[in-house]
Design goal:
Blueprint: H1 5-10, H2 19-49, H3 85-90, H4 111-126, E1 134-139, E2 142-146, E3 149-151, H5 153-163, E4 167-168, E5 193-194, H6 195-198, H7 202-208, E6 214-216, H8 239-252, H9 259-270
Parallel strand pairs: 3-6
Antiparallel strand pairs: 1-2, 4-5
Helix pairs in contact: 2-8, 2-9, 4-5, 5-7
Length: 274
């Protein structure tokens, strides 16, 4: 572990190490710090560049753009979308060809519940405003995913309320299914129970369902601090402001605290006569 900046500043010369050794050590530390700082800055620029972008995933477009004929619940993204018209139509089906995923794996899903899952999929496929939460993954069907997107508390609460009486057999839908038929089925031994049995609280549903793709936010819709699954396109896309806020917050903290002082101390040490 690198010493704290204050420790180096307090003793630019380390008497128990020969001066040339101190200078060699300083060169090594400075090189490592500069490399780390450069990597951090690059990632910060990447985060900034991720405003108005599409994930590298199975059905996403390379770049967002207008899609005037997006279907039904995906229509809010018509002005700027990462999904195509065909994708928006297909994801509304009970078992779409997009992923061969069957919502009704434990019997018919209540329409009000299904509507949330379609909206969730529209957000995933169509939104160009998830850049601050995009993470690289090594999966056959995608190279990127989003993680811990701050979902507005009302969106999560209504999702849970509308689905609590529908049925499922798993608490994590990302993995563990029986795919032998080509469509997801409950694994051996899994019992169909109400959503409320597998997801006893809204946070259990929103955070556990897709392996922490979402994180329940304490903020409300319209706050500019949480992502909305539902919005009125006539009022504009509120998620643009949210993505910008979080991207700027990440970039503000791009240089680790104390790095500048530590680099200065090492530079002073290197200037000492050998």
């Amino acid at each position: 572990m690198l010493p704290a900046a204050t420790e180096v500043q307090a003793s630019v010369s380390l008497p128990w190490i020969p001066l040339q050794g101190q200078k060699d050590m300083a060169w090594i530390l400075m090189s490592l710090l500069l490399l780390g700082w450069a990597a951090t800055m690059c990632s910060a620029r990447d985060r900034s560049d991720l405003l108005n972008v599409c994930m590298d995933a199975k059905h996403h477009k390379t770049e967002p753009g207008p899609e005037d004929k997006l279907h039904d619940q995906c229509s809010p993204w018509r002005k700027n979308a990462c999904c195509s018209v065909n994708t928006s139509q297909e994801l509304h089906k009970d078992t779409s060809r997009l992923y061969n995923f069957n919502w009704a794996h434990c019997g018919t899903m209540e329409p009000a519940c299904k509507r949330h899952f379609i909206q969730d999929t529209c957000l995933y496929e169509c939104s160009p405003n998830l850049g601050p939460w995009i993470q690289q993954v090594d999966q056959s069907w995608r190279k990127e995913r989003f993680l811990d997107v701050p979902l507005c508390k009302e969106d999560c609460q209504s999702w849970w309320e509308d689905c609590r009486t529908s049925y499922t057999c798993k608490s994590n839908w990302h993995k563990g299914w029986d795919w032998t038929s080509g469509v997801n089925k409950c694994p051996a031994g899994a019992i169909c129970r109400t959503f409320e049995s597998y997801f006893p609280t809204p946070v259990a549903l929103c955070e556990g369902l897709w392996s922490h793709s979402y994180k329940l936010s304490n903020y409300s819709r319209g706050s500019g601090r949480c992502i909305q699954m539902w919005f009125d396109p006539a009022q504009g896309n509120p998620n643009e402001e949210v993505a910008k806020f979080y991207a700027e917050a990440m970039n503000t903290g791009a240089m680790p605290h104390g790095t500048g002082a530590l680099l200065l101390s090492l530079a002073l040490l290197l200037q000492l006569p050998g």
